[in-house]
Request: fold
Amino acid sequence: MICRKKRLPIVLTVLFFVGVLLVVTIQLKDRVFGSRRANILAHLQSTGTCQSCDLKNLDLKDLDLRKIDLSQANLSGANLDGANLHKAILSGADLSGANLHKAILSGADLSKANLSRAYLQKAYLGGANLSGGDLIKVDLTRADLTEANLSRTNLSRANLYKATLYKASLVRANLTQADLTLAHFVDADLRFADLSGVDLTVANIQSTVLSDAVFCQTKMPGGILSNASCD
Reply:
């Protein structure tokens, strides 16, 4: 039987080697991801396209990706904080959980893209096409969506706090239980939009088109609860 005094040096030796192994593993991982990022960026810069590429969890912060073609790409969890994606093609791309804080997406094609749980605080999406997209629980706090196309998008439980949607199209959009606090909908088109469970008392809906919209447990301006569309 090994006495306790002899056990201690053995345990310390094992812990030392485990620590060394962890450090080496982390360094190798960083090198691999760094090399992968460099290769992908080189490819993007030389070709301007990366259709269906796997860019999951990649750090693309502050990059200039204007007019890049990333259609059908996997960008879930990617860091695109401050990235310039002006007129980029992201149709059908998976951007779920991606960080797009202050990203520039003006004129970008995000049709049928998955932006569920993505972070787009203070992002600029003026004139962007998000039609048919999945934006469940997306965070669009203070985002600028002026003249953006959000028709047939699923914005259920989305955060649109102080978002600007001036002249935006939200025809047949699903806005159930979305946070529209201080959202700016002036001259927006919400025909046939589902506004169930929404509070419009502090949203700016001046000159907004609401014909045929769905109202169920909807708080209208003035505090009146509308159940006009409830089954």
Q: What stands out?
A: The domain at 48-231 is CATH 2.160.20.80 (Pectate Lyase C-like). The chain has one domain: 48-231.
